[in-house]
Amino acid sequence: MNETQNTARIAVVTGASRGLGLELARALALRGWQLVITGRGQVELAAAETELAVHTKVLALAGSVVDDDHRERVAEATAALGGASLLVNNASTLTGYELAGAKLPGLAEHPKAGLLETFEVNVLGPLVLTQLLLPQLRAQGGAVINLSSDAAVEAYAGWGAYGASKAALDQASAVLAREERLVRVWSVDPGDLRTRMHQEAFPGENISDRPLPITVVPAFLGLLESRPASGRYSAVGLLADGE
User: What is the pLDDT of residues 78-87, one digit of tens each?
Assistant: First the structure.
């Protein structure tokens, strides 16, 4: 971002109540960004707002990215603050429904309702929110970060719905990057992390060998600092380049 905008940079981070979204919000807050954070867990989101408000101006709006009214509230609130310089589309769902200790379903038996919700949360919600915020992002010379996954490019049993939705988001990001000359559009694979969603994918298994979300935050901060060309990146690659 332009150095002259540092005191008024505004970031929208979805899925910011926990995991990588919360860690990114923390890092941005410590660097003076004003924040609009969203998440479906109202209690967790309120706790995040209380924590982050110590460091910066923050507005927490509980709701789902698939809800039209919620997306409109986010766009309106961000405009009232002065306009977004950054949108982080982090909110995701693994299967579109609570696993409740069950293994990931194969595509042959994946419930239709779950498929629909997966694509609504992982693809349609981020795209429509991006549409709403693009006028602000263009005016600020801003950026969009869409969270991807290696499941978007590799075939893993049980990850069909999630992987297909992330592949769709990758393609939409690539097309948007071609169409938008004033806004950077980055699709980022953060790698396997020790998050609640990842634990749900492996019920009963010990995933303590996966790195914590905070370990990849420097990769995202590096993107904002160096502003490379729009495209698809991996956190591992970005961290290696920054060494």
Answer: 999 999 999 9
